[in-house]
Amino acid sequence: MAVHEKITIAKAINASLRASMEADPKVVVMGEDVGKLGGVFRVTDGLQKDFGEDRVIDTPLAESGIIGTAIGLALRGYRPVAEIQFDGFVFPAYDQIVTQLAKMHARALGKVKVPVVIRIPYAGGIGAVEHHSESPEALFAHVAGLKCVTPSNASDAYWMLQQAIAGDDPVIYFEPKRRYHDKSRLDTEAIPDPLHSARIARSGTDLTLAAYGPMVKVCQDVANVAAEEGKSIEVVDLRSLSPIDFDTVQASVERTRRLVLVHEAPVFLGMGAEIAARITERCFYHLEAPVLRVGGFHAPYPPSRLEDEYLPGLDRVLDAVDRALAY
């Protein structure tokens, strides 16, 4: 595949899986409906036809079994890429992930590697029913032994997945499902950024907005609106949630002296809490305003009619920007 003008995130992930499977016959894709159907979001469309049922495996509806099998395959030298169909379906597999997958390497004193990638479409914005729009990333980022990443554009979706598959550590790869059909440029011949580095998505001087996954686009829209009002907003795409590239965030805050953190997950004990604490420690003498957080409410994800009220949008983020700049 050559350089694309623009491609959707969903197609970029599909292309990434293809590239990984072509490069290494030990890469297998598995999950509910990933084969003949091509996944409920059609992200794995055509893979089973091209690589066969032995490498693109339709599993039973049993998330614990999917991850347990993936761990066994990894121990036998394979590189399984397991899909959890929706974010809220991951919890039957939570025990396998946090007590087995995350611990195997340490438990074996480094002698065992478990290169499992778990793809999880996450967050809201698609008008779905209960357990189809959740943001469980903080639960997994808290677990030592797991790495967690999330792309916000086609280029990162393509490169980060290949990097995750090629590595020897278990990685949770969170896919922002409402951005699946967003298009952006992809250069398949580029040199990708390191997997766990943040990037400056937009430069600015007055305030830093740090976000990841589905909220990066919202923050870029906020920066566009703020620019019309004469405010210069820098947007940092975190990309990696465990580990977190605090150095890039710190450098940005040292320039702008203000930080607003944005994510869909509830603010209470969300990813923003750790980043706010760490940046406050590192940048205490640079900050001209308290670090503010914008996110979901500490409540179960609501029915689709209330989704727009629950999700952080342009107005809620702009309000936080105005409050930070008012100090």
UniProtKB/TrEMBL annotation:
Example of a GO MF term: oxidoreductase activity
Alphabetical list of SMART domains matching this protein: Transket_pyr (SM00861)
Co-factor(s): thiamine diphosphate
Keyword NAD: no
Record keywords, A-Z: Oxidoreductase
Domain Transketolase-like pyrimidine-binding: 7-182
Superkingdom of this protein's organism: Bacteria
Protein name: 3-methyl-2-oxobutanoate dehydrogenase (2-methylpropanoyl-transferring)
Species in which this protein is naturally found: Streptomyces ramulosus
Taxonomic lineage: Bacteria, Bacillati, Actinomycetota, Actinomycetes, Kitasatosporales
